[in-house]
Amino acid sequence: MNIIELTKKAVELANRDEKLKEKIKNTVVTIVMLCKNGEDQAFTFSVDKGEMSFSEKKLENPDFQFEISKKDYFNLMTGKAFGMVLMATGKMKITKGTWVEINKIATPLGIIPKLGKQIASKEQVYEG
Questions:
Q1: In this predicted structure, what is the pLDDT of residue 36?
Q2: What is the 3-state secondary structure of the chain?
């Protein structure tokens, strides 16, 4: 399974979690993860009143955008790195949105890597 398949599966699992859906039922937000290193790759996560979706396309005007290396994104999604540590060390940077509003995305931004780690512990995942 590659990192894109892992991410999609994590979002699918998140959509089945009724407690999570209840927690984010009033949230409408878009988040772009721009993975840098040679060929840039973007992932868009959308939350619309409890439903999460994932796209491999870069939304042009997201509410939040983060830049991260492909390797660090892989490590984040497989549980080898943690978002707050990546932010604190400058390996993941917020390039759109503000820290004041970060609480809007804390739940969806935190659950996807957590689910990714669970999936990665059971399946072989590679970066490509």
A1: 87
A2: CEHHHHHHHHHHHHHCCHHHHHHCCCCEEEEEEEEECCCCEEEEEEEECCEEEEECCCCCCCCEEEEEEHHHHHHHHCCCCCHHHHHHCCCEEEEECCHHHHHHCHHHHHHHHHHHHHHHCCCCCECC
pLDDT tens, position by position, 6-51: 999 999 999 999 999 999 999 899 999 999 887 788 999 999 998 9
Domains, in order of start, for the chain: 3-120 (3.30.1050.10)
What are the backbone angles phi and psi of residue 93, rounded to the nearest 5°?
-120, 140
